[in-house]
Amino acid sequence: MKPGYRSIIVIIAGVLVIVIASVYVVLYWENLTPLDKDEDENSDIVVLNQQRIQLLRSEVTQELKSFKMEKIIQHRDLVLRKENFSDESQMSDYQKYVTPNNSAVKTYQTSNGLTTAEKIYAAAVKWTWVSDQTLHGRLEWWLYPSQFIQDTPTDPDNPVTGMASDCESQAYTLVSILEALGTQKSNVRVVVGEVNFSGEIGGHAWVQLYENGEWFELEATSGPFWDDDDDQKLVNNNGFPFSYFKTHPYPVVEYWAFFNDQYYYNPNNNKKSNNLPVWWFETD
Question: Mapping DSSP to helix (H, G, I), strand (E, B) and coil, where does residue 202 land?
Answer without folding.
Answer: strand
